[in-house]
Design goal:
It is a single chain. With about 325 residues, the protein is an alpha/beta fold. It has two domains: about 10-135, Response regulator (Rossmann fold, 3-Layer(aba) Sandwich); about 150-325, Hypothetical protein af1432, CATH 1.10.3210.10. About 55% of the residues lie in helices and about 5% in strands. Helix 3 (about 65-75) links the parallel strand 3 and strand 4. The longest helix is centred in the middle third of the chain and has 36 residues, at about 115-150. It is elongated, with a radius of gyration of 25 Å. The model is unreliable at about 325 (pLDDT under 50).
Length: about 325
């Protein structure tokens, strides 16, 4: 659970001055918030590990770790980077404010602290945190739903996790921006979420699908896009969901895109998806060795199905992975 709907929250107050610390705690508790106090930077970091925190008020000049240091550490850790941070300081120079911004601070309060300004800034940041918590919850539900679909087939266990690792490594090798790498991590999990609308009799059918069954199966890309469309944070994920079954020659679905018309993120996911299917055990065959799997993919690329340049780069990713494992 995150920020409560009534606006109350768990707030960390870190200040080496007992008087300042007690004043902030009293003002915040008077508004119904729960307050955790820390007398130096290291204890502030310890409190983040021991307590759920919705917002942090950090004095800049503290022993053991400054407010700048704590803020920077918080923004570097996935589990705390979305917690709003307010730096409370008597330092008013532009240089100090710039340093705070570079450390990831969300806001500043100048000492002596005004009650009205404190409560206004806290209220504003907690409202944003509430929206962030709702967004994270929605994403978690979608990911859980997608993983439940994966769990129906014992032969796809760990499939999404492997796709996330492969696709992010490949995206990094290709120099894609961070937002597209994040989209690929998410897309690896939810790309087949539309299969929730596919009957299990079709989804788990051991033999070939009939033309009617194939039509139903192919709708999963459109259904998946529709499911995830309300989340604005998934705007770069939607093309992956919709287009990861397109082919270079235009014979794929749902839109018959060709070559460069297919988003690069979708081309990346389809390559790693095919490789994972070939290189893991299936009911009808054992996992294929790396070079044999890549050879099949190259043969299919010659037929106009996959992007051979992406396959080349992916082979480099796999070789690098093997070198790391051998070292």
């Amino acid at each position: 659970m995150g920020v409560h709907e009534n606006g109350s929250a768990n707030i960390l107050v870190a200040d080496d001055d007992e008087g300042s610390r007690d004043l902030l705690a009293t003002l915040l508790r008077g508004e119904g918030h729960a307050v955790v106090c820390a007398e130096d930077g290291q204890k502030a970091l310890d409190s983040l590990r021991d307590h759920r925190v919705d917002l942090a008020l950090l004095d800049v000049l503290m022993p053991r770790a400054s407010g700048f240091d704590v803020c920077q550490a918080m923004k570097a850790m996935p589990e705390t980077r979305l917690i709003p941070v307010v730096l409370v300081t008597g330092l008013n120079s532009t240089k100090d404010r710039i340093r705070g911004i570079q450390c990831g601070a969300d806001d500043f309060l100048s000492k002596p602290v005004s009650k009205e300004e404190l409560l206004a800034r806290v209220h504003s940041l907690l409202r944003i945190k509430h929206f962030t918590d709702e967004l994270e919850s929605a994403e978690s539900v979608l990911c859980s739903l997608a993983l439940s679909i994966e769990g129906k087939d014992p032969y796809t266990d760990g499939h999404c996790k492997r796709l996330a690792g492969y696709s992010m490594a490949l995206a990094s090798r290709l120099g894609l921006p961070e937002e597209l790498q994040v989209a690929l991590r998410r897309g690896a999990t939810v790309h087949d979420i539309g299969k929730v609308a596919v009957p299990e009799s079709i989804l788990l059918k051991p033999g070939p699908l009939t033309p009617e069954e194939r039509t139903i199966m192919q709708q999963h890309t459109i259904v998946g896009e529709r499911i995830c469309a309300p989340l604005k944070s998934f705007r770069h994920v939607l093309p992956i969901i919709r287009h990861h079954h397109e082919k270079q020659d235009g014979s794929g679905y749902p839109d018959g895109l060709r070559g460069e018309q297919i988003p690069v993120t979708a081309r990346i996911l389809q390559v790693v998806d095919i490789y994972d299917a070939l290189s893991t055990d299936r009911p009808y065959r054992h996992a294929l060795p790396r070079q044999e799997a890549l050879g099949i993919m190259r043969d299919e690329a010659k037929r106009g199905w996959w992007d051979n340049s992406i396959i080349d780069e992916f082979e480099g990713v796999l070789q690098g992975h093997l070198l790391v494992e051998a070292s």
